[in-house]
Amino acid sequence: MSDSNKNEGEIRQYLGFSLNGQRYGLPIGSVKEISTVAEVTTVPRVPKFVLGVMNLRGKIIPVIDLRVRFEVEVTPFTRDTCIVIVEGIQGEVGLVVDKVEEVLNFVETQVKAPPAMGSEAFMKYVNGIARFNDELVMLVDVQHVMSFQEFQDVLSPTPEEAA
Questions:
Q1: Distance between CA atoms of 55 and 32, rounded to whole angstroms?
Q2: Sign of CA dihedral 73, 13, 29, 117
Q3: Structural domain total, the chain
Q4: Going edge to edge, which strands form the sheet with 11-19?
Q5: pLDDT tens-digit map of 102-116
Q6: Single pTM value for the model
Q7: Which CATH number fits the domain that encloses residue 128?
Q8: Buried b vs exposed e over 45-63: b needs ≥16 C-beta within 10 Å?
Q9: What angle do CA 141, 111, 93 make, to 5 degrees?
């Protein structure tokens, strides 16, 4: 690391991915693994952004479609579409993304607060923005992508389902 980088702060790593042509990043420390979409089982009466659940080595985890959650155009799945398994405060969650790209490195001074614009839903889930080459990368706040209550609602049966 050069002396100028030492003064800029700690390097933060993000897993780069795309949704509808826009680049995003997930904190690399929260990423557990990457999986295919073929393993998802639909669940009735869940929010539209919940694609379903998947069995990950005996553990059932919810899977959400970030395109729906972020209110961007939903396109058909391709061979590049995958699920990024992340660890949030509520537990493991699968995030459907169009394509996983590469690991992005940003020093603290490169990460800026996102401007107060766009949909309220979108701004709730993005906690930073940084420039990578000539593109802006939206940095996703994993802890807010799915609330604890939403997590419980997906994994807990309703009283009539439990009967």
A1: 14
A2: negative
A3: 1
A4: 99-107, 11-19, 22-27, 135-140, 126-132
A5: 999 998 888 888 777
A6: 0.82
A7: 2.40.50.180
A8: ebeebbbbbbebeeeebbb
A9: 20
How do residues 36-70 score in pLDDT, each as one tens digit?
Answer: 887 789 888 888 899 999 999 899 999 999 998 88
Assigned token pair, 90: 């509520």
**Domain ranges, residue 47:** 3-148
Closest by Cα among 50, 42, 53, 55 to 67: 50
Tell whether 158 is covered by a domain: no
In a domain, 68, yes or no: yes
Does 161 reside within a domain?
A: no
CB 100 within 8 A of CB 110: no
The closest alpha carbon to 94, from 128, 69, 129, belongs to 69
Contact 9, 107 (CB under 8 A): yes
Residues with Cβ < 8 Å from 162, sequence gap 6 or more? none
| Cα–Cα dist 11/104, whole Å | 10
First to last CA, the chain: 60
Altogether, the residues listed in the chain come to a count of: 163
